[in-house]
Amino acid sequence: MAKVYASVEEDYVDTDFGNGLGLLVTCQKCGHTVEVLGVEEPSENAAFALLRESYPRAERNWYEAKVEIDDALLDRIKARYSIEE
Questions:
Q1: What superkingdom does the record give (predicted)?
Q2: Of 23, 17, 18, nearest to 63 (Cα)?
């Protein structure tokens, strides 16, 4: 299995199991997206499994969340923990 990054966003979702706050998980390789209810780690894991099973290119990728931190947040983290580059 190839390791592929996926973006994870919280949003209101409408699934076969109901609607409410959930996750939109998008493959960074091809743009394929799945929706799941819930925003905790088990929901994220379920979304990665669903993405792997429903991948349109018949590949079985291993997904990992891609975390993006903006520069302002990174500067605050560095200042708080006295991190120098």
A1: Bacteria
A2: 23
Report the predicted TM-score, pTM, of the whole model to 2 decimal places.
Answer: 0.69
33 by Cβ neighbours in 10 Å (0-12 / 13-18 / 19+) ranks as: middle
The number of beta carbons lying within 10 Å of the beta carbon of residue 44 is 18
3-state SS record for the chain: CCEEEEEEEEEEEEECCEEEEEEEEEECCCCCEEEEECCCHHHHHHHHHHHHHCCCCCCCCEEEECCCCCHHHHHHHHHHCCCCC
Task: List pLDDT tens digits, range 15-44.
Answer: 887 889 999 999 888 899 999 999 888 899
